[in-house]
Specification:
single chain, 588 residues, 40 strands, 9% helix
Length: 588
């Protein structure tokens, strides 16, 4: 062989090696895809790195790429909605984005084949074909977050199917599957599902046999209750490990229903929301505060010229009535649920002279309070209250203070509705109900002082205190849960400072107040959850409320006077609200 042939061959081989090395050294280019329209094919039509829109090939999303969907994407036949391969892809379906696939088999909504891919769905995914999973994750260490909705109706079409190892799925939206499991851990080790607050699951929740270290975490909020039927394998290894992020004890029994046929075990996993137990002291304080604010104290009478009316007309009855209403709300935190309340009531009083120096008003009060617990109304409680008692007026007239004491006995009737998340119900939840009652004793003191500044202005100030004790009877909810009897002893006290302006028959006033409440007894509530005893300890048992009040009183005639006020308040525990009341006094 000639020598020059060896030189040519060597040159060719050297050039080939250089090309191979160059190819290996060029990094995979990451692309940014934005889907802008549909053509019934996988990935639709869109821009690539900002270029002119064109069809995005089914194999184009192949590693370290980003995909954004903000329009309605539709496919036909067996075409997948969005498909990615290899690793580190990011797919985002915004609230305005949706995926609807055709009737063909395996027409998945989103198909991730690879590792470390991140998928976020705030919009919707709908599939109809057999085996057409809403999201199919096939690989390791993939992260999927769904705050929107997924709906599948085809045979063996899962809402979200996880295959591989250490894949994490978080749901705060809705996932519905009528043909298979809404959530399926198909195979692998260390895969997890987390249900965040707002999650609605309709259909089976399953981990297959021969999976391992599978985790199911409930992070639905303290006020949420649930009763999920969950399928698993025959041994502990291939079943879910359950965890409640709100530190409640989930109770698992073999009482689940409608698990898919492949599940060897069908567990019923239940937990009870503690919102009713945690908010009971707030409810008690709120109802009592509104009622006390409606009472007719001797400090009110002086400025309305009602005392003069009473003394000038000894033979007449000086009866009074007060209508009131108010609302309050509290944001959620790590230790307490959010709530909203509304209250409306009526208080009627009439004086009963005891002697020349002692005046007593006999008083009847009724009110209705509605309490909604949780962002999605996890619980609704309606309280109807009936109270009868007396106010003893002006016990120390020589001191310059208007000192009154009061005492009431009452009965509170409660009707409760609890939303229980249940994946066997077509809506994803069911309602259980309860009816229970409490008997209450309320005692209190109000002392007010008024000092004239000049002919038209008065400085006012005062203190108050009360003690309430309510015994709530044991009761059962219509399903799953029951509560033991509980006695709530609550103390409250406060101060107020203000100014009054008097002109003829009209008095206007403004004041600032500070009120502190503390639960002295009843911090622990015990209950039964699906046959297992548990307890809740209220950690936020005291609160301090700051308030501002403005109002007026007006003597319309010798026989009739009016008084009205509005109040706004806020507290250290995040309770904000307002109230209003209107009182009429008349002599007849």
């Amino acid at each position: 062989m000639p020598y020059h042939f060896f030189l040519i061959k060597k040159a060719i081989l050297s050039g080939t090696s250089a090309l191979v090395c160059l190819a290996l050294s060029i990094p995979v280019m990451a692309n940014d895809f934005v889907i802008t329209s549909s053509d019934n094919s996988t990935n639709g039509v869109g821009t690539t790195n900002g270029a002119t829109a064109a069809a995005i090939a089914a194999a184009a999303i192949d590693g370290s790429d980003t995909v954004s969907l903000g329009i309605a994407l539709t496919t036909t036949g067996t075409n997948v909605g969005i498909k990615s391969t290899n690793d580190d892809n990011t797919i985002t379906v915004s609230e305005t984005g949706s995926i609807t696939t055709g009737l063909g088999n395996s027409a998945y909504g989103i198909y991730n084949y690879g590792n470390s891919n991140v998928t976020t769905v705030s919009g919707s995914i709908t599939t109809e074909g057999a085996y057409a999973h809403g999201i199919l994750v096939d690989g390791n260490s993939n992260v999927t977050t769904v705050s929107g909705s997924i709906t599948t109706v085809g045979e063996n079409a899962e809402g979200i199917r996880s295959t591989g190892n250490t894949n994490a799925v978080t749901v705060s939206g809705s996932v519905s599957s009528t043909g298979s499991s809404a959530l399926l851990n198909h195979s692998g080790s260390g895969n997890s599902f987390t249900l965040d607050e707002g999650a609605v699951i309709i259909g089976n929740i399953t981990t297959n046999a021969f999976t391992s270290n599978s985790k199911l975490t409930f992070n639905l909020g303290q006020g949420a209750s649930y009763a999920y039927s969950i399928g698993g394998g025959l041994t502990i290894i291939d079943q879910f490990t359950f965890n409640d992020a709100d530190e409640r004890d989930s109770v698992a029994t073999h009482g689940g229903t409608n698990c898919i046929n492949s599940a060897f075990i069908c567990n019923l996993v239940t937990a009870v929301g503690n919102g009713n137990a945690e908010a009971q002291d707030e409810l008690q304080f709120s109802m009592n505060s509104f009622m006390i604010g409606s009472l007719e104290f001797s400090s009110n009478q002086a400025n309305d010229s009602i005392e003069a009316m009473a003394y000038a007309q000894k033979s007449k009855s000086n009866t009074w009535a007060n209508v009131y209403g108010g609302t309050s709300k509290r944001a959620s935190s790590t230790t307490q649920s959010s709530f909203n309340t509304s209250n409306a009531g009526l208080t009627i009083g009439t004086p009963v002279p005891i002697n020349d120096t002692l005046d007593v008003d006999l008083v009847f009060n009724t009110s209705r309070t509605s309490l909604d617990i949780g962002l999605t109304k996890d619980q609704e409680i309606t309280a109807n209250s009936y109270n009868f008692g007396a106010v003893v007026n002006d016990l120390a007239p020589a001191t310059g203070w208007a000192v009154d004491v009061f005492g009431f006995i009452g009965r509170n009737s409660y009707d409760g509705k609890r939303k229980v998340m249940n994946n066997n119900i077509a809506t994803g939840s069911e309602t259980v109900t309860a009816a229970y009652s409490g008997n209450e004793i309320l005692l209190g003191l109000d002392a007010q002082y008024s000092q004239a500044i000049n002919n038209t202005f008065n400085f006012t100030g005062g203190i108050n205190a009360n003690l309430s004790n309510e015994k709530i009877a044991a009761y059962s909810e219509s399903k799953y849960y029951s509560w033991d009897a509980r006695t709530m002893l609550q103390a409250a006290g406060g101060i107020n400072l203000g100014l009054e302006h008097n002109k003829d028959a009209l008095t206007t006033f403004a004041s600032l107040g500070l009120q502190h409440s503390s639960l002295q007894k009843g911090k622990t509530a015990t209950y039964t959850n699906n046959g297992t005893t548990g307890s809740f300890i209220d950690k936020a048992t005291s609160d301090t409320r700051r308030s501002a009040t403005v109002g007026f009183s007006y003597k319309a005639s010798d026989n009739i006077a009016f008084k009205g006020a509005v109040e706004a308040f806020t507290s250290e525990n995040g309770v904000d609200g307002n109230s209003a009341n209107l009182r009429i006094n008349w002599a007849f």
